[in-house]
């Protein structure tokens, strides 16, 4: 047969040669982009977690929540604040700080209204505080060697913090990360994007 007949016969044997396989390839391309984006987000989240771990261990950063409105309206109830632990010698009047008084279970976050040197502790300070919403200062001063200065706060951030730290969220994130890694490294069957005959294969026109 002529070359034209051979080409025509080839097109009859492969009806998808003119774009029939584009749709599966397009879906595969979209899936690949979604996978790459998810892996990139997971990588950024991992880097953020590492950076936060370094910040807490080596630079004294941490988070505190406000269960009461004693600092309203500056810091309303349910806020989440970023704090940094510093030596007592660096504390200043007017700062909002988190201090732990001996014998009390929970720390207190109020504004400093007075600071005095501690005669019994060379590096210590005696700090008096008062909440912005309170009409009187705290009943007793705080004898401290360090304090956590509030750097900033987010109203309503406590709800987000509680949701992230809940067991359900942790389990969901763990399962999602495992599924993402499995999806990323699962073996894939290569697909041919051409209609040319494979090596060793011969076509015969009829």
Automatic annotation (TrEMBL):
Signal peptide: none annotated. NCBIfam families: sigpep_I_arch (TIGR02228). This is Signal peptidase I. The chain crosses the membrane at residues 37-61, 168-186. GO terms for biological process: signal peptide processing. Residues 1-26 are annotated as: Disordered. It comes from Agreia bicolorata. It is found in: Membrane. Its EC number is 3.4.21.89. Its main location: membrane. The lineage of its organism: Bacteria, Bacillati, Actinomycetota, Actinomycetes, Micrococcales. GO terms for cellular component: membrane. Residues 13-26 have a biased composition (Basic residues). The keyword Transport does not apply. GO terms for molecular function: serine-type endopeptidase activity; signal peptidase activity.
